[in-house]
Records
---
Amino acid sequence: MMRRLVLAIALPAVLAACGAEEVWAPDEAVRAAAYRSDQSPSITLITAVNNRSNEGAHSAILINGSQRVLYDPAGSWWHKTVPERSDVLYGMTPLMLEFFVDYHARETYRVEVHEIKVTAEQAEAALRAAEAQGAAPKAFCANHTGQVLRQVPGFEKIGGGFFPGRLKKSFAKLPGVVETIYYDDDFDDNRGVLAAQDAAKI
């Protein structure tokens, strides 16, 4: 009985700690930042992987459709030129993508990128699913990324649950996936990287 009482008291606190942070940039900022790439439509899974344990630590997807956006659930990267709406980051130019990868790749983590070419319809389905998903609570990055991907025709069987590494392995099995791995020897404390990116001339 006592154990049940403790759980009942603790549960609301746990749920409160898992609350997602809603960020909602104004319409004019999103429109102004929109970036349209001339590359073929694609969906790219980006995974931060611990160099010591080889376990996945974070998941995000770059969607190149009518515009290129990054769905970064429960992510911590930001840039003043990239407006955000509930974990969807708009204005993902090549430089901003480079910044994002550089922020995550450091002495203890590498970044594994898996890109697959898709139809324009698949890319738009991914974009709309990401916009509708809502902000993710902490530690739900792989879970929410998988939920978005499974709404895209052809990606319905993507697995992984709450584990970025399992999501990566499932995505990598798709036919036509191209893998790129990024290493960096930056210090593990990457606050300086954010500060440098913020100060960089765009």
---
Amino acid sequence: MTWMEIESAEELRELLGEVMPRAATKDRPKLHELDRAWLAASPFCLIATSGDDGTCDVSPKGDPAGFTHVIDDSTIAIPDRPGNRRADGFLNILRNPHVGLIYMIPGRNETLRINGRARLIREAPFFDEMIVKGHRPHLALVVEIEQIFHHCAKAFMRSSLWKPESWSADELPSHARIVKDVQTVTESVEQLEAYYSKGYADKLYKV
């Protein structure tokens, strides 16, 4: 079958049609009171970055609801927690500061989207307000908001993401089994199962 590739904005618009008026005017440059409320209720976000060579990364960030610190109407800060130290997204930001964020609230089909420019901050007074279980972040991502808007529910409704009856997690092997099969590791599956269960949970806020 022949592939038919879209190669211009004009061709894309011809296929999709014009932007719906309500969608075309919904983005704003500053936080609204309801945006602040959304951030206060959200325990999870995705951060998209791109390096200067065009390579991309999307990284999840999660903490207790309200983990994102609002500095002012156009600036937010996201604490970094102990992880695998790959720092793919952070390395991208050092080369290209543009970021895209999607904030989710479990059970809500809508999302809050933020686009802006990011900086990596290693110390600031507001770090004291981001302590969780004794862990004070050693790094925070500060985002200067350029565009913010609420995204509609259609993708979540189509996927039935929040409906437990649609979940099929057990159809796949455990994460430990996947790691053993796709990576070169010395640990046994049993050792990996222990690490990714209790051992993993015990180190959520420990370096």
---
Amino acid sequence: MQARDAPDVAPLLQALCVFYPQAMEGILMTDHFGSCLCGTVSFEVKGEFDSFYLCHCQHCQKDTGSAHAANLFSQSAKLVWRSGADAVTSFTLPGTRHSKSFCELCGSALPNTQIAGLLVVPAGCLDTEISMSPTAHIFSSSKAAWDGEFGEVPKFEGLPN
């Protein structure tokens, strides 16, 4: 049978996915790749993200040094360390569920599995594009006073001269 004579299997695969989603895991599973700033740590996330939150809590402001954290969450995706797993360290703020994993050499935020059954991936550490838009802003009551709409603030493609 030549390629032009091959049957169209797309309708069959779509029907199979509707009735037996587990049958499609190997076919439709999405892989995302990421790394730290210095390149020591690299990883792969096999699967889909459930949500994408921009968190404005004071803990996230402190550990990112920014207005908010941008984290992807999944209860089903699997994390695979491709290199540098021994350089990954984690910190959990005592008395809270706030944890962070990072490269001990460059400090880059990395995926975190400190909460059982939950993978948290800082969006900025991914090297591959994500098609998901943020799900929501959370802890907006803690939003930094300087974080807002800045229509009149100049924009530069790179570092200003």
---
Amino acid sequence: MDSLFEIVDSIPYWLLVLVGGIALFGAFQFYYWGGKKLGAKLPETRVGRKIGKERIAKVENLVRRWGALSVFGCFWVPGGLRHTLPWVAGALQVNYRWYLVASAVGCVTWVPVTAFGLYAGVWAWLKLAATSPLYGGLTLAALIAVVVLLVWRRRRRANAPAARENEPAEV
């Protein structure tokens, strides 16, 4: 049986980029048409409630101002904007031809950079884990701890305004 390194190393980088690009482009088309079908009802749907009315309003303003260019820009912004904006673009019925071009250019530019970073990171961790399982495990545990901490902080911040609204006013 081949070692894990040989299996991972045998996957050509261009294939990772191609598959990732096609998958992301397909997801963006699904998001757009889903948003177009939902239209103004988007905030009341399960997807809309998960996104949040305030976030949808911010993204709507961004899309109204920048149009399809905002679709390209959303690839380079961290967080949920990358997956929120296409729903809103569909709901606002951004011109589909421009949306198609912007999402294609976004995929073609963003996927190779991201794939390279992920490929390099995973490869480095696999080498570290093979050399020293202890350090590999500690590195993985630290990464998981950072992700848990970030999620916890984000949820705490999101719930903080709601907690303040429910407090009794001081006299």
